[in-house]
Amino acid sequence: MFELFALSAVISAALSLLFTPFVIKFAFLVGAVDKPDERKIHKRTMPRLGGLAPFISFVVTLVVLRFAVPQAQLSVLAARSSWLIIAISISSILLLGVCDDIWSLKPGQKFLVQFIAGALVYIAGFKINMLTNPFTGGVIYFGVLSFPLTVLWVVGITNAFNLIDGLDGLAAGIAVIATLTIAAISLLHRDITTAVIAIALAGAVLGFLRYNFNPAKVFLGDSGSLFLGFMLAVLSIQSSTKGSTAFSVIVPLLALGVPIMDTFLAMLRRVLRSFLSEQSLQSSPLGKLHSMFLPDKRHIHHQLMAHGLSHRDAVFVLYIASCTFGICAFLVTAGSLNSSLILIGVGVLGVIVVRKLGYKEMALFRNGMLLRLYRKTILGNVASVVVLDVISVVGACFLADVLGTSASPLGLEWRTTAFSAISITIIQLLAFLFGGLYRRTIALFGLGDVLQILKAVIVGTALTALALWILPILSLNSDVKVFLLFDFYFLATFVIGSRVAFHAMNYIVNREVTQGTKAIIYGADINGMITLQTLLSKGSQEKNDGHSITPVGFLDDNPGMEGKFLDGYPVFGGHWKLEGLMKKMGIGEIVLASREISPAAFVRVKKIAEQFNVPLRISQLSFESIEENPGLRGLSSIDRHQGQRYVPKTV
HSE (CB half, 13 Å, CA atoms) of 429? Predict the structure, then answer.
């Protein structure tokens, strides 16, 4: 077996080494060259038809193995008409890349051809039509969603390799690592044919890498990046569907982790960039969507170089990352590691990497712009809240049906499933409407609102149960009792979560802010909590004016409070800790929220404030009669009952 794979790799690599110099001359002859500009790293005109060399080497190798090496089991290709369709789709992608290298096609034209090629892949039988349910171990069938998911996967991976082809040898090297990973996974599934094809492709790209590694003599071009991306998309489907767990989405996602991560970050960055200025908030949603496809010089490899890495070092770092992803994919396939642990680890690593790369667009999650956008589009618009609830109801219904059965959530005839989902959505939204949920404001959300939501969700679940009982046309895949239990849990979680999201973002934004005046609050009690919320609100309102107040924590003379947290902020200790905190943290304001401060403690706190020349303020909540307050007598529209106001005073 080893001899077979070695022969496959050696033949394709040797052919690629032989053909690449001729491809370089041909690229200059037909004008398929890449001239330097502000987005490019190279400084001289480079040929970019490089993809022809690995393609020709790959095809010739498969032909040789087909007729000369029966152990390669490539004879099955000729016996299946579907492989002819795959050959046509691969050729169309290569031709698309060649035309783009020579004439620079428009994005719409490229996407159209890629969509057709993806559809041909589906017709040929390479489908993402099932996956393993991670909760029950059963198989989930996608049904009518199989076609769009397959096409999306093929087009997405194809373009992912196109986007990552920004440094000499980067896309080619990652393609070698990914194909070797797919070959290893195929061997685990005893799929010799797919393994031989993957090894042949890896050898062809490895031979080309001799001319493509820094300093490169030729670029892959779109002919190479689109061809490699398309081949890897198809091979990943083929290798994954051979396993006992059907199409495990985790495996190909990990095997192609680097290009997928770079593409996702690029799209996210470009959309977020459209929100970086107040003026951009007025642009149309279509304009923001279009911004995802605008090229820039901020990919992962660009950011690595911006942080001081050399051209080669950046490529090697991404090689290591790709190897790590590949090893994880292999371990998941072999059953050596829990898939959920892999996803958690990759997610944590991804967050750390994004923070280290220093994308300024991600500041939207910290500087309050996203918060203001949420407030503008959601809080002040009932229709937006209804849309959130529709998403919550549909999502809860889908998850409840998935978790309540080991079969497919689309196992029933799709029209029946759709009718049932629409009916349940209408029933539960009516419960929300008559339950008064849309007469409540999200901006001021408290325990009473939570209880009201729970009441509405209970009523909605009860009405759903009644409808399922008296209307036989409403059919589910899962047991009704299990469905209702899960549906109640997810629905309550999603609806409450959508309303708490604003306050959670507000809290996170204020915790992330490091600019502005740092304030410490004396009094870790109910008055301290009110003062904290007032300062946070005041700080949020004043951030646009260049001044903000940033609470850092509490002081309290109660020894039992020291070391604890109040609303997420630490209680440092009593007044005896104040002087040290002033020196260590640069406190710029002290706010007295507690009425229980002793005279001696007050004198000491005031002395420290004077010593460090910071204001000492008293926060108090007072109730005054209109007759007793001359400043309020002119408010004739207010009846003669007590008014309430927050009174900050400076000592």
Answer: 17
Which pLDDT score is estimated for 271?
73
At 180 the pLDDT is 94
3-state SS class at 405: coil
Q: Are the beta carbons of 509 and 540 closer than 8 angstroms?
A: yes
Tell me the DSSP string of 140-184: EE-GGGHHHHHHHHHHHHHHHHHHHTTSTTHHHHHHHHHHHHHHH
Residue 546, classed as helix, strand or coil, is: coil
CATH topology of domain 514-650: Rossmann fold (3.40.50)
Question: Cα angle vertex 267, ends 265, 273, to 5°?
Answer: 95
453-495 tens-digit pLDDT: 999 999 999 999 999 888 877 777 667 888 889 999 999 999 9
| Local structure of 444: helix, strand or coil | coil
**Cα gap 179→23, rounded to integer Å:** 23
Q: How far apart are CA 112 and CA 106, in angstroms?
A: 10
Distance (Å) of CA 177 to CA 164, 255, 309, 324: 14, 9, 22, 10
Indicate whether this model's pTM tops 0.85: no
CA atoms lying within 13 Å on the CB side of residue 473: 8
**What backbone phi and psi angles, to 5 degrees, belong to 455?**
-60, -45
Contact criterion met (CB below 8 Å) for 442 and 379? yes
> Which pLDDT value is given to residue 540?
47
Residue whose entry in the numeric block shows the structure tokens 């646009």: 544
Count CB-CB contacts under 10 A for residue 17.
18
**Whether the predicted pLDDT of 642 surpasses 60:** no
- 519 strand-pairing partners: 551, 589
Over pLDDT 90: what percentage of the chain? 32
Residue appearing with tokens 């005279």: 599
How far is CA 54 from each of CA 60, 65, 77, rounded to the nearest angstrom?
Answer: 10, 16, 20
To the nearest 5 percent, what fractions of the chain are helix, strand and coil?
65, 10, 25
Closest CA to 325 of 157, 202, 178, 186: 178
User: In sequence order, what DSSP letters do the residues of 291-327 get, joined into one string?
Assistant: GGGS--S-SHHHHHHHTT--HHHHHHHHHHHHHHHHH
Three-state secondary structure call for residue 412: coil
CA angle centred on 80, ends 76 and 84, rounded to 5°:
115
Is 289:272 a contact under the CB 8 Å cutoff?
no
Residue type, 522: Y
Type of residue found at 38? E
Residue 107 contacts residue 227 (beta carbons within 8 Å): no
Alpha carbon distances (Å) from 188 to 174, 185, 238 = 21, 5, 13
Question: What distances in angstroms separate CA 190 from CA 183, 194, 475, one per listed residue?
Answer: 10, 9, 40
Buried b (16+ CB within 10 A) or exposed e, 528-567: bbbbbebbbeebbeebeeeebbbbbbbbbbeeebbeeebe
* CA-closest candidate to residue 584, choices 572, 595, 596: 572
Domain ranges of the chain: 2-365, 371-508, 514-650
Closest-CA residue to 51 (of 150, 161, 178): 161
Separation of alpha carbons 253 and 261, rounded Å: 9
